[in-house]
């Protein structure tokens, strides 16, 4: 039987049939691969068209951009990915929930030595509202020239004293973000520094208890160069070390607490302090605001930010609470003037764009003329060279003719 099968399989017809079946199977596999590749390429092209739909208007028939901008013919479009939009960058924090913020501390929290007495609150508020989060600062005091300027800050107050002030205001306002900057006066007054961390822990624990939906942003202390009255630089170093350890403890406990480290290479330096060696300059307050914002973005990324508890009489937007005040009316006028300025600027940009378009068109025309001239000059030079060569040959022939006439006549 085996010999019979072997003889049948070796016949020319059967061999050709087997080879043909193998060829068809291989062709079918290749066909499937080509289909898969084509589908993948189509999907990639569609994805590219979706991400780059905004570029379709750039190509114009005359080589200039249809929106009037200057054409860049030597720079082809490079595929750009959609990128990673982290919370707080172009997107509002926590899906745009209203942020009821309490800034609590002493004179640095108040913004002392800043040009407008808003300190770090102004840049924080401007950024958060620009990305879509309604903001209302809360507190029993009003400091600064912005309308939403409530705050809870007392110059010279130590951590324990600020804890006492919080007992009254926090249950009445229920902030969902608390910017804490306390401890500097403990250092300046050299108030039981070895046990500072116990007072700070009790303070933060109370804030989270009195406002259960709050996120605490712990701000470390700024450096100090003042040496004549307080000389607290060494104590600041000790307290900041305790704060870093406390933050690790809160983190281990799973508390909604983030650290805003004001030290380090990108923090506040000695050169950023004002004349008194204790408070930051106006520019340094802005940097403080940026550091605090980074910590709020981190809090959002970790899922800490939650809507504040409803409180009767506390609005979502702090500006609305004071829109009828003199400053509120002034702020409205400033916004109106800013809108007018932006409109004028847009018109000027459009005029400049049209002028650039005309200029580039004329420039292209002059380039075409120069190219035409560049093509004509070599041709004229070649024609001139041909004429010179012809004249040389003619003169040589005439010379030969004159020599022959002289020799024969």
What does this structure look like?
With 409 residues, this protein is α/β, with parallel strands linked by helices. The protein has helices at residues 2-9, 12-51, 107-110, 121-130, 159-173, 184-188, 196-210, 233-252, 282-301, 318-321, 326-408; strands spanning 99-105, 135-137, 141-142, 150-153, 177-181, 215-219, 257-260. Among the domains are: 93-323, Rossmann fold; 325-376. Helix 5 (159-173) runs parallel beside helix 7. The longest helix is centred in the C-terminal third of the chain and has 83 residues, at 326-408. It is elongated and about 135 Å long. Residues 40-81 have low confidence and may be disordered.
Brief write-up:
The chain has 409 residues and is α/β, with parallel strands linked by helices. It contains eleven helices and seven strands.
List the main descriptive attributes of the protein structure presented here.
409 residues, 7-stranded mixed β-sheet, phosphatidylcholine lysophospholipase activity, single chain
Over the alpha carbons, how many angstroms does the gyration radius reach? 39 Å
* CATH homologous superfamily identity of the domain at 93-323: SGNH hydrolase
* CATH top-level class of the domain at 93-323: Alpha Beta
Number of beta-strand segments: 7
CATH domain fold name of the domain at 93-323:
Rossmann fold
Give the helix tally. Answer: 11
Through-space gap between termini:
119 Å
- Major sheet characteristics: 7 strands, mixed
Instruction: Please give the share of residues in helix.
Output: 40-55%
Query: What percent of residues are in strands?
Result: 5-15%
């Amino acid at each position: 039987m085996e010999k019979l099968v072997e003889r049948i399989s070796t016949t020319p017809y059967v061999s050709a049939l087997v080879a043909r079946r193998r060829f068809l199977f291989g062709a079918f596999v290749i066909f499937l691969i080509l289909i898969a590749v084509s589908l993948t390429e189509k999907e990639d092209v569609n994805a590219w068209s979706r991400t780059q739909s905004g570029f379709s208007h750039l190509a114009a028939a005359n080589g200039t951009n249809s929106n009037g901008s200057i054409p860049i013919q030597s720079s082809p479009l490079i595929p750009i990915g959609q990128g990673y939009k982290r919370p707080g960058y172009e997107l509002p924090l926590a899906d745009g929930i209203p942020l009821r913020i309490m800034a609590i501390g002493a004179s640095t929290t108040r913004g002392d030595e800043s040009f407008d007495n808003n300190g770090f609150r102004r840049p924080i508020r401007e950024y958060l509202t620009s990305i879509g989060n309604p903001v209302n600062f809360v507190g029993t005091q009003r400091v600064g020239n912005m309308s939403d300027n409530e705050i809870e800050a007392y110059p010279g107050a130590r951590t324990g004293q600020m804890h006492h002030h919080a007992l009254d205001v926090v249950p009445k306002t229920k902030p969902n973000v608390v910017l804490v900057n306390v401890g500097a006066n403990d250092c300046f007054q050299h108030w039981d520094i070895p046990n500072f961390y116990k007072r700070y822990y009790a303070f933060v624990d109370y804030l989270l208890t009195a406002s259960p939906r709050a996120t605490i942003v712990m701000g470390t202390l700024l450096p100090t160069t003042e040496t004549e009255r307080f000389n607290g630089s060494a104590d600041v170093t000790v307290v900041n070390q305790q704060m870093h350890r406390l933050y690790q403890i809160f983190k281990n406990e799973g508390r909604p607490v983030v650290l805003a480290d004001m030290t380090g290479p990108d923090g506040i330096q000695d050169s950023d302090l004002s004349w008194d060696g204790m408070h930051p300059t106006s520019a340094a307050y802005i940097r403080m605001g940026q550091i605090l914002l980074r910590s709020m973005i981190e809090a959002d990324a970790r899922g800490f930010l939650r809507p504040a508890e409803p409180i009767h009489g506390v609005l979502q937007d702090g500006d609305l609470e004071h829109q009828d005040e003199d400053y509120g009316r002034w702020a409205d006028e400033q916004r109106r003037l800013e809108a007018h300025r932006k409109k004028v600027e847009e018109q000027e940009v459009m005029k400049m764009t049209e002028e650039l378009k005309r200029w580039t068109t004329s420039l292209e025309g002059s380039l075409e003329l120069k190219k035409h001239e560049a093509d004509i000059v070599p041709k004229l030079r070649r024609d001139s060279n041909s004429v010179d060569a012809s004249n040389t040959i003619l003169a040589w022939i005439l010379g030969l003719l004159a020599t022959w006439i002289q020799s024969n006549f």
